[in-house]
């Protein structure tokens, strides 16, 4: 696989000689997708909290609980727990349960909230995910998943009938590292038999998913914050892969 040239502050130090300087980029033969926030989004915290508590929660109480979760993101103990969160299943569980338990009323159900993450029915594909994946697959584009995660995602994709489109599954916890480590992207490319220069990474995190560029891939980063089940704007991926949307 090709290596990236060494770059100074202004650009590559050596002039590329393998291809003409004005050669067009290689056609996209493979697309890698992030999971959460890209193809899927979990149900709302309001729904998850009510399910975990096993009782209705009034608006004032829910607002207090959600504010507690927001405040917890700044808690030093929670911040420490997030470090290297996705390098193992144990670290992943610890990071999330520590955050949930930072809200005293949610501490007794922290494990239940975490179990929701691994429950396929808690996740909703974005409205345009299935059509986009089907169109890419019909064109012969190889597809893979590269996700910072603490469990195997295949059951969630299978639950929604989307696993059949993918030939590579790269979970960070299985490799003891996190994006943007080039190891993850390059491993997915090898699994798909695609050169990084022919591969597009699609995600929603500029540093993590956009970091695929450091491994020689192209990257498309979606804006964060799309609601569960909404249109995600994945038709742009088809255009980047040189395909009509229909």
TrEMBL record:
A Pfam family that the UniProt record links to this protein: Hydrolase
Positions of the UniProt region annotated as Disordered: 1-21
GO molecular function: hydrolase activity
Database matches in InterPro entries: HAD-like_sf, HAD-SF_hydro_IA, HAD_sf
SUPFAM superfamilies the record matches: HAD-like
Keywords: Hydrolase
Superkingdom to which the source organism belongs: Bacteria
Alphabetical list of PANTHER family matching this protein: HALOACID DEHALOGENASE-LIKE HYDROLASE (HAD) SUPERFAMILY PROTEIN (PTHR46649:SF4), PTHR46649
Protein name per Swiss-Prot or TrEMBL: HAD family hydrolase
């Amino acid at each position: 696989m090709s290596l990236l040239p060494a770059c100074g502050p202004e650009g590559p130090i050596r002039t590329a000689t393998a291809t003409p300087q004005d050669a067009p980029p290689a056609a996209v033969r493979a697309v890698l997708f992030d999971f959460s926030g890209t193809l899927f989004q979990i149900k709302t915290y309001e729904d998850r909290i009510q399910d975990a508590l096993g009782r209705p929660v009034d608006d004032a109480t829910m607002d207090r609980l959600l504010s507690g979760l927001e405040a917890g993101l700044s808690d030093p103990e929670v911040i420490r727990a997030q470090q290297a969160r996705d390098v193992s299943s144990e670290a992943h569980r610890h990071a999330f349960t520590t955050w949930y338990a930072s809200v005293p009323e949610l501490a007794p159900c922290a494990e239940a909230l975490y179990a929701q993450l691994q429950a396929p029915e808690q996740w909703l594909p974005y409205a345009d995910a299935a059509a986009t994946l089907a169109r890419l697959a019909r064109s012969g584009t190889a597809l893979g998943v590269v996700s910072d995660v603490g469990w195997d995602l295949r059951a969630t994709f299978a639950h929604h009938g989307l696993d059949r489109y993918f030939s590579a599954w790269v979970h960070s916890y299985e490799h003891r590292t996190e994006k943007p480590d080039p190891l993850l992207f390059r491993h997915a490319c090898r699994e798909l038999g695609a050169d990084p220069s022919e591969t597009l990474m699609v995600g929603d995190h500029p540093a993590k998913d956009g970091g695929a560029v450091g491994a020689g891939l192209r990257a498309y980063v979606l804006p964060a914050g799309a609601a569960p089940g909404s249109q995600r704007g994945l038709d742009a991926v088809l255009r980047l892969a040189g395909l009509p949307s229909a």
